[in-house]
Automatic annotation (TrEMBL):
<dbReference type="GO" id="GO:0043565">
    <property type="term" value="F:sequence-specific DNA binding"/>
</dbReference>
<dbReference type="GO" id="GO:0004803">
    <property type="term" value="F:transposase activity"/>
</dbReference>
<dbReference type="Pfam" id="PF01527">
    <property type="entry name" value="HTH_Tnp_1"/>
</dbReference>
<dbReference type="InterPro" id="IPR002514">
    <property type="entry name" value="Transposase_8"/>
</dbReference>
<protein>
    <recommendedName>
        <fullName>Transposase</fullName>
    </recommendedName>
</protein>
<dbReference type="InterPro" id="IPR010921">
    <property type="entry name" value="Trp_repressor/repl_initiator"/>
</dbReference>
<dbReference type="GO" id="GO:0006313">
    <property type="term" value="P:DNA transposition"/>
</dbReference>
């Protein structure tokens, strides 16, 4: 058993509780430290250590996480995807169909005419 590692993990867990207590209290760091007899330098030191540990754990998790479950095969995405989405506008029996290929200038002119009616 590695006592140094165990001690470090214990300290980290204790400081995590202290930092969470500060957040829950709603006090500023200065006021919380004064009230609880904690050095601001120690508070910031352990807060930095906990953040670094959390970031390291996230990086490791992302590197080891497999996007494709075991036994499955990754298929390439279909590259030729054209948007077939359209927008239909009907005003007093006048129908306008707009899609990605619609000329924007023409659409602006049509909108100006419709607004003037």
């Amino acid at each position: 058993m590695d006592t140094r590692k165990t001690t470090a993990e214990f300290r980290m867990s204790q400081w995590a509780k202290i930092i969470q207590s500060r957040i829950d209290s709603g006090l500023s760091i200065k006021d919380f430290c004064q009230t609880n007899g904690i050095s601001k330098n120690a508070f910031f030191y352990w807060q930095k250590k906990l953040r670094e540990k959390a970031c390291t754990e996230i990086e490791v998790a992302e590197k080891t996480r497999s996007i494709v479950p075991g036994g499955w095969m990754q298929l390439s995405q279909k590259q030729d995807r054209t948007s077939k989405e359209t927008l239909g506008i009907e005003i007093n029996g006048c129908n306008i169909i707009v899609n990605a290929e619609t000329d924007v200038e023409l659409l602006k002119k049509v909108c100006r005419v419709l607004m003037s009616l």
